[in-house]
């Protein structure tokens, strides 16, 4: 029997060991790389990253794209109230709503964003809220931030949301009727928020935002587009949901999904924030993203997540839109200018009449119908307008009647 010659093999043992070690280390590094880039939790839209469109500087799709962005050192200043365009402005209805629909805005931020992001929220839209709170983990006189007892980082956002609402519940519950959460890269048109909320009562257990479909039966509201809770919803969240095992108890998780689960657990309704013709009002991207047709792949995560079918082009967005996300600090000033200053001469807008107040019964009915009926097409809008002008809406127009009823029904209570 031939004895295998092990001599040379024995001699190669150290090399085999090095090769093995090298391979193991390389394999481990590769696995870590793969898991850190693709194996995210299923609720994270980033899992679609590989199918995302190439990023366009003016239309970011992730927070990372805005990481380095900051705004001007110096405030951009103000126009004087007596200047021509402003002197003729009539803001009496907006002022009435400022008194009647009180909104506390709280902005999720962190120490490294105080100066680069949150400050520009403070200098632009946040001043229009009845009360604004910057929620951080460090006090900072620059933005009067609240130091919540939480650690920073993405895996503590859920803890921060819970602590923020607890803080509000303990210190500011009577300062407002509605409580709006926004990020430090969210832009909010506060007057339009009040206009939408006018129909509802702060005692309704309801919340609104950009409604997403997965993970929660009634859907949940995108965190980035911001969401607004009624006073009753805040009470239920802090008193019933946070202590309940139905609500995630640790710090981790996607804060918007977790909030959505808690809201459902304590029977807070996911409201329909679309306008009377079915156009959206809360948006998880900048206006450009929603306005320009076909610039994202059909596989883009938002198209799979959105509760209502999104429309492209000008149909996308309500004339009374409320929020946009991934807005750079500089862009906050641009939006402020476009929304509150730039005016086409000779066109004077009149405020549409205030809508009727809704009862809880009206809201539930409308919502149930809204779930099963698609948004009316532009063609149907026109037909509906004609038929309603004639004072009769045919059966084939059932769904449009539903949307219009939302603003037209007398409250039952
Ligand atoms: C401002 O608008 C309100 C409501 O539309 C109207 O009642 C009021 O007369 C207007 N004020 C002026 C000065 O035009």
UniProtKB/TrEMBL annotation:
GO terms for cellular component: membrane. Residues 80-89 have a biased composition (Basic and acidic residues). It is found in: Membrane. Gene3D superfamilies: 3.90.550.50. Its main location: membrane. Keywords: Disulfide bond, Glycoprotein, Glycosyltransferase, Manganese, Membrane, Metal-binding, Nucleotide-binding, Signal-anchor, Transferase, Transmembrane, Transmembrane helix. The keyword tRNA processing does not apply. GO terms for molecular function: glycoprotein-N-acetylgalactosamine 3-beta-galactosyltransferase activity; manganese ion binding; nucleotide binding. Residues 106-266 form the Fringe-like glycosyltransferase domain. Pathway: Protein modification; protein glycosylation. Its cofactor is Mn(2+). The chain crosses the membrane at residues 20-39. It comes from the Eukaryota. It is a single-pass type II membrane protein. Residues 45-92, 370-413 are annotated as: Disordered. Pfam families: Fringe. Its EC number is 2.4.1.122. The keyword Protein biosynthesis does not apply. Homodimer; disulfide-linked. Belongs to the glycosyltransferase 31 family. Beta3-Gal-T subfamily. Glycosyltransferase that generates the core 1 O-glycan Gal-beta1-3GalNAc-alpha1-Ser/Thr (T antigen), which is a precursor for many extended O-glycans in glycoproteins. This is Glycoprotein-N-acetylgalactosamine 3-beta-galactosyltransferase 1.
């Amino acid at each position: 029997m031939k004895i295998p010659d092990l001599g040379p093999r024995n001699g190669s043992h150290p090399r085999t060991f090095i090769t093995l070690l090298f391979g193991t280390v390389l394999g481990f590094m590769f696995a870590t790389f793969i898991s850190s880039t693709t194996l995210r939790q299923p609720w994270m839209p980033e899992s679609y990253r590989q199918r995302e469109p190439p990023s366009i500087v003016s239309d970011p799709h992730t927070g990372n794209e805005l990481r380095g962005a900051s705004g001007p050192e110096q405030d951009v200043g103000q126009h004087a109230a007596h200047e021509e365009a402003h002197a003729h402005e009539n803001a009496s209805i907006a002022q009435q709503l400022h008194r009647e629909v009180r909104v506390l805005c709280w902005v999720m931020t962190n120490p490294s964003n105080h100066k680069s992001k949150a400050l520009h929220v403070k200098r632009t839209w946040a001043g229009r809220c009845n009360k604004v709170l910057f929620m951080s983990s460090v006090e900072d006189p620059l933005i009067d931030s609240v130091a919540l007892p939480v650690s920073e980082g993405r895996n503590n956002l859920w803890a921060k949301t819970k602590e923020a609402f607890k803080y509000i519940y303990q210190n500011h519950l009577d300062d407002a009727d509605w409580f709006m959460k926004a990020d430090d890269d969210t832009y909010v048109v506060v007057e339009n928020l009040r206009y939408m909320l006018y129909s509802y009562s702060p005692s309704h257990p309801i919340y609104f935002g950009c409604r997403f479909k997965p993970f929660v039966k009634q859907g949940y509201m995108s965190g980035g587009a911001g969401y607004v809770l009624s006073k009753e919803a805040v009470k239920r969240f802090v008193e019933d949901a946070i202590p309940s095992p139905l609500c995630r108890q640790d710090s981790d998780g996607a804060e918007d999904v977790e909030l959505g689960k808690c809201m459902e657990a304590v029977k807070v309704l996911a409201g329909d924030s679309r306008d009377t013709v079915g156009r959206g009002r809360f948006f998880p991207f900048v206006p450009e993203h929603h306005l320009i047709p076909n610039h994202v792949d059909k596989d883009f995560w938002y198209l799979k997540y959105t509760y209502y079918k999104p429309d492209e082009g000008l149909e996308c967005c309500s004339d009374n839109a409320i929020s946009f996300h991934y807005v750079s600090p500089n862009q906050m000033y641009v939006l402020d200018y476009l929304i509150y200053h730039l005016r086409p001469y000779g066109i004077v807008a009149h405020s549409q009449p205030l809508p009727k107040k809704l009862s809880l019964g009206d809201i539930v009915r409308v919502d149930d119908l809204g779930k099963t009926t698609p948004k009316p097409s532009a063609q149907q809008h026109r037909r509906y307008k004609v038929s309603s002008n004639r004072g009769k809406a045919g059966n084939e127009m059932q769904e449009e009647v539903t949307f219009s009823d939302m603003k037209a029904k007398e409250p039952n209570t």
